[in-house]
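User:
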Amino acid sequence: MEGDDSFSGVGKLFALFWLGFSWVMGGFVHGVSSIGGAMVAMPMMTFTTAPRDAILIACMAFGIIPLALSLLYRRHILRRELLWLALGALPGVPAGVALLTVLSGPVLLFGVGALLVAFVLWQTFSHRVQSVLPFHPLVAVLVGAAGAFITACTSMGGPIFAVYAAFRGWKKEEALATTSMNFNVVNASIILLQGQAGLYSDFVLHAVAVSLPCAILGVLISLPVVRVMPQETFRKVLLAMIFASGLVLVVRALA
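Assistant: Predicted structure:
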C-alpha cells in the first residue's frame, strides 16, 4: 500500500499544484473534445504520484461525468445492451481490483501507456470500421467484463466500450447514454471493492477532494473555447499529446 509517500520525493506543495493542474487540463480536454479527461490527467499525475494511487484517484475523480451524461441522454439508453454489458462487471471488476493490488508501478505504467497508444491508433483508423457486429448476449457480457476489468486496474476502460459501440453501429447519443450508464455501474462497483480492499489511503481521499473541483474548473474554462477553437485541429493536437504520453509512460516503465 502506498500512502503519503506517493509524492515520489518532490515537494508536497508542487505535487498538489501539479495534481490540480492535471485535473484542470483533464476537465478542459473533456469539455472541448468529450474524450475522457482521465486519459490526460492520469498520465500527468504519474510524474508526482505513484501509479497505483494515480489510477485510484482517476477512478474516483471522473465518475461524475458518466453520471451527468447518462442523465442527460437517458432517453437514448439501449436497455437490452446495457443489461448484458453491466453483467460483465460481476467478474470484471473483482478481477481488475485484485490485479491492481499486486501489480508493480512499472507494470502499471506500461499497461496504461500501451492503452493510450492503442486508443490513438483506434481513433486514427476507426472511421473505416463497419457496423457488422450483431447483438449477442455473450459478446456483450465479454465486452462488459473486459471493459470493467481494464477500468478497475488502469482506469482506462473507455476504449473497449467505444470499439464495441462502433462495431455495433450505435448512434452518438445511444453510445453516450448506454456506455455512460454502464460506467455508473462499473464505477460504483470499483469504488466499493477498492474501498473494501483498503486501497484508499488518506492521500488518495485528499487528492480526490482536490481533483474534483479542479476538473469542474477545467470544464468551465472549456466552455468559451469550444465556440472559437476548430474541433478537428484540437482533436489532432490532443491525439498527438495522448500518443506522446503513452510512449513516455512505456519508456519510463522499461527504464
